[in-house]
Amino acid sequence: MKKLILLLSILTAAQITFAQADTSFNFLRNTSIPDFEIAKAPDSVTVTKKDVVKRGHPFLLVFFSPDCEHCQKETKEFLAYKNELKDIQVLMITPMPYAHVKQFYTDYNIDSLPNFTMGQDWAYHLGDKLRPHFFPTMLLYDKIGNYITGFTGNVPIPTILAAFKK
Fold it and tell me: Residue 84's Cα: distance from chain center in Å?
């Protein structure tokens, strides 16, 4: 009996640690990437959806915070899987002060990821529209910009890639 309880406890803990599709984003079904305007790192130039999103490529929108350990870990995974992610457009945004964004951009060598754009959502327009509850929050969109699914917390890159293939 003790072994059965231990096994159930381990399975429950394992279930909790693996990221699952976040059903709290169901309100996004049949929606597309909203318009946005951000201050892009490293030069603080203002860019919009039409500057960042290229039709014909899947799109990953990542809400992050530079001081979030989970976001730092996810960014390291992005760097480790940069070849596998090369055909996916990625926008990492945060409402945090621009100086923090720029420092994160530099510290994590984001310029080595040509398909990544990072910036500050200074007016929190995307946050208001998409309502992320945790950092990191990742929203996946298909090649024509339609919402696929969302994840919160650390998500293994193979899980993200598999979600794009569904």
Answer: 15
Put simply, whether the predicted model's pTM sits higher than 0.70 gets the answer: yes
Show the CA angle centred on residue 149, arms to residues 148 and 150, nearest 5°.
145
First to last CA, the chain: 40
Residues of the chain falling short of pLDDT 50: 4, 6-8, 11-22
Interior CA angle at 83 toward 96 and 161, to 5°?
A: 75
Query: 34-63, pLDDT tens digit by residue?
Result: 999 999 999 999 999 999 999 899 999 999
Q: 78 is written with which tokens? A: 């992005």
Q: What local confidence, expressed as pLDDT, does residue 11 receive?
A: 45
Counting every residue written for the chain, the total comes to 166
Beta bridge partners of 152: 137
DSSP per-residue string spanning 36-69: -EEEETTTTEEEEHHHH--TTS-EEEEE--TT-H
* Domain positions in the chain: 20-165
The structural architecture, per CATH, of the domain 20-165 is: 3-Layer(aba) Sandwich (3.40)
* Residue 48 DSSP SS3: strand
